[in-house]
Specification:
Strand content: 5-15%
Number of strands: 10
Shape: globular
Radius of gyration: 18 Å
Largest sheet: 8 strands, parallel, barrel
CATH superfamily: Aldolase class I
CATH class: Alpha Beta
CATH topology: TIM Barrel
Strand order of the largest sheet: 1-4-5-6-7-8-9-10
């Protein structure tokens, strides 16, 4: 099976903060750690990057810093979502200007547009900027679950090239393969269903767990892409507790706690997000031991 431009394990990067400001040095170090571990792509300024609480200037700076640090070594899919179509266009345009390979654009949230509004949102982005766009379907956060019928329409637009599917519904992948055609990129948005999604024809995952264990996650997706399902199952079992632990509290709090424990950034989030509760920390540390990132 050949794989498209965007594939494999693409890390949904956290945004490290120090004393209320973006910690650029820590961010650069995190990017370098991901690349050294063999990760296939990086996603700055997504949900895990706390995009909803940074300023537009910070958002653009983080994307620019990610692209500059990676320097073409891995694909960069810049988070560019907004419930304002004009703001999303601005972020996608900026992603193109600084050299990102693609943009990740979430379904408009809060507004609750109907299917035609969702289509027109993405069409406006498609028409405004010549950059590949991955549409992001995450009903648990946006309230809207975009149908395969809408994605079939979007797949006909030249710059809407695929989906990050965080529904957890395996059948959606099979349907999209049939409805959207062989060039449609399919990325899971859920670490815990990565194995099933890949077996259903997916191309990779935008992963939270890779923040903590990038080498193990990259190896898992390498096994999936090679159709080495026995190895993939072994690695999925090894990672399962970490996948669970990353959502024992509101994400990205568990990931930031784990990275702080590794000495890679401060355990600092932007309000209304707060550090994870003490009650879940033992389970996070246990999962880190199980996957081998701490003793």
């Amino acid at each position: 099976m050949s794989f498209p431009l965007i594939h494999g394990a693409c890390t949904a990067l956290v945004t490290p903060f120090r004393d209320g400001k973006v910690d650029e040095d820590a961010f650069v170090a995190l990017v370098e750690r991901q690349i050294a571990a063999g990760i296939h792509g990086l996603v700055p300024m997504g949900t895990t990057g706390e995009a909803s609480t940074v300023s537009p200037e910070e958002h653009k700076r983080v994307v620019e810093l990610c692209v500059a640090t990676a320097a073409g070594r891995v694909r960069i899919i810049a988070g560019a979502g907004s419930n304002s179509t004009e703001e999303a266009i601005d972020y996608v345009r900026h992603a193109k200007e600084v050299g990102a390979d693609a943009a990740l654009v979430v379904t408009p949230y809060y507004n609750k547009p109907n299917p035609e509004g969702v289509y027109q949102h993405y069409k406006a982005i498609n028409d405004a900027v010549q950059l590949p766009v991955i549409a992001y379907n995450v009903p648990s956060r946006t309230v809207l679950d975009v149908s395969n019928e809408t994605y079939a329409r979007l797949a006909k637009l030249p710059n809407i090239v695929g989906v990050k599917d965080a529904t957890g519904k395996m059948e959606r992948a099979a349907g999209q393969r049939l409805d959207c055609g062989p060039d449609w990129i399919m990325l899971s948005g859920n670490d815990d269903s990565g194995l099933g999604y890949m077996a259903h024809g997916g191309h990779g995952c935008i992963t939270v767990s890779a923040n903590v264990a990038p080498e193990a996650v990259a190896n898992f997706y390498n096994a999936c892409m090679a159709k080495d399902w026995d190895t993939a199952l072994y690695l999925q079992d090894r990672l399962a507790r970490l996948h669970e632990a990353m959502f024992l509290d509101s994400s990205p709090a568990p990931a930031k706690f784990a990275l702080a424990h590794l000495g890679l950034c401060k355990d600092e989030l932007r309000l209304p997000m707060t550090p994870c509760s003490d009650g879940v920390k033992p389970a996070i540390l246990s999962a880190m031991r199980e996957v081998g990132v701490i003793n």
